[in-house]
Design brief:
Length: about 425
């Protein structure tokens, strides 16, 4: 017997990639595809064992088992279920095999198993990759070894890092949307839209990875819209956005256009302190000039021929003179030939964030700017405040630097209101 499947289900079930993942919205048919994949892998490995897991045992009972048994019945497989072992012995015309069901929270109990394949449903609900690593270690008895996952995205966790941020060879990501399931009643979709904000809709309907922590700072950043190839134009000025930090010191390099997208980020520079006495600001400026010499351009913002090759937007705190140095950071930049554009004092964090979020409709970022992209996706607001959460010392530097430029050139102005008396 055969039956129709959706495009994302078929791609996931039939792929020969060693480690595929189907990431899709609610109601998109993930668990059905998950069980189909398990049955197919059983056929590829006759006489062997396949493990299918849910994050916790109740999900096995309530979701996985009913779906698997319905599929086996629809496909006319004979099978026997041994409750004491949570194992299905499955038979077809010229072979047999077994599928065992396990909870991923008890991944340590998988030790000693010899598997041909394993799968984890709703894998992004797991707090880390321990179950995934254990599953891989058990792939030792079969013909076609594979591990696979299906899940609704749950933020930038281990699953995002494995399949989206830094996928290794043989890892394949397949996406699906809730609306791909043409059999869902419209009421289901309408209910989701009515109860979820724009961020949750992207995750739970569109199957996109988004930051689901409370208070995403750069909530208007959308990777699919804002990340695209950006080419450097040596006839156009370089805007150097700088965050003064002891280590790392960070700079975002961009150019401004009078056509959309107006702000185009083509590079980022991150340097670490090399030892006592090193002038980090001087080193950063020289690195910019080394990578991008001989600029000649018309200043688009000022609509005139520009004298300065490099225009920088540093942290306003760089105007302060330290007792250990005769020159401020801003003085060093000017000495290196940079035009310095900076406000007398740093803008309020919330004002800078509003400006940056508003700018994303005109921002393109080259994919190689990984640290800036990571910031936009991961930086959050400290709960109960209007300040950035800086507990992760690797985050916020690139996005702060970008924010100084946007707040200077494209600030969001509060509307002026007037009061009238009758």
């Amino acid at each position: 017997m055969s039956f129709d499947v959706f495009k994302h289900q078929e791609e996931f079930v039939k792929t020969t990639a060693k480690f595929p993942a189907l990431v899709a919205g609610y109601g998109s048919g993930k668990t059905l595809a998950f069980c189909l994949k398990g049955i197919l892998e059983l056929g590829r490995n006759p006489g062997k064992t396949i493990l299918l897991a849910e994050p916790v045992f109740p999900m096995i009972r309530d979701v996985l088992q009913p779906t698997l048994e319905q599929l086996l019945d629809d496909l006319n497989f004979r099978y026997q279920y041994k409750a004491s072992e949570s194992k299905y012995n499955i038979y077809w015309k010229n072979g047999s095999g077994c599928i065992i069901l396990r909870s991923a929270e008890n991944w340590r109990r998988w030790a000693g198993l010899n598997l041909a394949a394993f799968g984890i449903d709703e894998a992004a609900l797991l707090k880390d990759d321990s179950a995934w690593k254990m599953g891989i270690s058990r792939l030792r008895d079969g013909i076609h070894f594979t591990g696979f996952t299906t899940t609704t995205p749950e933020g930038f966790n281990w699953h995002y890092e494995y399949w989206k941020e830094n996928p290794k060879d043989e890892y394949q990501l397949i996406h699906g949307k809730t609306t791909d399931n043409k059999f869902l009643p419209q009421e289901f979709i309408d209910t989701l839209k009515a109860n979820y904000d724009a961020t949750l809709i992207r995750a739970y309907l569109n199957g996109e990875y988004v930051n689901l922590q409370h208070g995403q700072a750069y909530y208007n950043f959308v990777r699919s819209k804002n990340v695209k190839e950006v080419k450097y134009d040596n006839n156009r000025g370089i805007r150097v956005c700088i965050d003064f930090n002891v280590s790392p010191m960070c700079a975002v390099l961009l150019q401004v256009y009078d056509t959309s997208p107006k702000i185009r980020v083509f590079d980022e520079i991150r340097i670490s302190h090399g030892g006592a006495g090193e002038l980090m600001t001087e080193r950063l400026a020289q690195e910019v000039k080394r990578k991008y010499p001989n600029n000649r351009y018309i200043d688009v913002l000022q609509k005139r021929l520009a004298k300065d090759t490099y225009i920088c937007y540093p942290d306003p705190a760089g105007s302060q003179r330290r007792t250990s140095a005769r020159l401020t950071d801003h003085d060093i930049l000017r000495k290196e030939g940079f035009m310095v554009k900076v406000k007398r004092q740093a803008p309020r964090v919330i004002d800078r964030l509003n400006s940056v979020n508003n700018s994303f409709k005109e921002v393109a970022i080259d994919p190689r700017c990984k640290e800036l992209i990571k910031d936009f996706e991961r930086v959050v607001i400290k709960e109960g405040t209007r300040e950035l959460d800086k507990t992760d010392l690797e985050l916020t530097h690139m996005s702060d630097a970008f924010g100084y430029f946007v707040d200077f050139e494209f600030p969001v102005r509060k509307p002026q209101t007037k009061s009238f008396m009758a």
